[in-house]
Amino acid sequence: TFSLGKIPTGSQDPFALRRQALGLVNMIIEAKYHLSLSAIVAKAMDLYGIEDEKARAKMQQDVADFIRLRLKNVLESIRYDVVDAVLADVDDIYAVALRAKAVADYVASTDAAAGIQAFVRVANLAKKAESAEVSADLFQTDAERNLFAAYEKASAAVASDIASESYAEAITALAALAAPIDTFFDDVMVMDKDEKIKNNRLGLLKSIDQLVSRIADFTKIVLA
């Protein structure tokens, strides 16, 4: 159906694929099973002999969007903004559910606002970065050095926590970045007139944004 461009909708779903996909998503989450959606789609395209790269990319996007809507239904008991924040990457369906629960718990905590605001400030400027490359030799201030050190520590912790499905701990590691992020913005002029220094600072922010995005897109969170 997807290979023919006939994506199921509310009025056109003769094979009941929406209901079947919803059941599949529920089963994967209940079974606590990790799998790669993109790998499955890629294998299916191989079997169907779909070789055109544009067609393959569109298929991946269409299936991901289709599953994303099913996940929205399954996670309807969780705040809508939290669900939106974790749905950018739906490749591992069970991991999405775990991240949604962890982010929901974090957002409900009393100290979440400071962390979320810091993540959003980083994300806004990270959009201007051409790459996430960072050179410690180009740092001009202690605020840069301290933030980079905090980022490296958080990066190692987040990787370990994700591997062990400890998403609450991963968020705690990310939240520790809030203070050095705030100090960085207080003490550093990111858009320096020296292109190398400016790009290095933007690269640091992009690196942090990419790390945070492994858990959620906190720009989606609505603060009271």
Structure description:
This protein has 224 residues and is mainly α. The protein is built from 10 helices and no strands. α6 packs across α9 (178-187) and α7 (142-163) runs parallel beside α10. The protein is globular, with a radius of gyration of 20 Å. The N and C termini lie far apart (43 Å). The model has no long low-confidence stretch (mean pLDDT 94).
Quick overview of this protein structure:
The protein has 224 residues and is mainly α. 65% of the residues lie in helices and 0% in strands. The mean pLDDT is 94.
Helices and strands, with pairings:
Elements lengths: L16 H15 L5 H11 L5 H22 L5 H7 L6 H15 L4 H15 L15 H22 L3 H9 L2 H10 L7 H19 L11
Entry keywords:
mainly alpha, Isoleucyl-tRNA Synthetase, Domain 1, 10 helices, globular
List unreliable stretches of 5+ residues. Answer: none
- Strand count, sense and closure of the main sheet? none
Examine the coordinates and then state which fold CATH places here, giving the name of the CATH topology of the largest domain.
Isoleucyl-tRNA Synthetase, Domain 1
Principal-axes geometry comes out as globular
What is the level-2 CATH architecture name of the largest domain?
A: Orthogonal Bundle
> Percent range for helical residues?
55-70%
Question: How would you classify the helix and strand content by structural class?
Answer: mainly alpha
- Termini gap: 43 Å
**Mean of residue pLDDT values:** 94
Tell me the number of structural domains: 2
Rg, nearest Å: 20 Å
| CATH hierarchy, class of the largest domain | Mainly Alpha
The succession of helices and strands, N to C, reads HHHHHHHHHH
The share of residues in extended strands comes to: under 5%
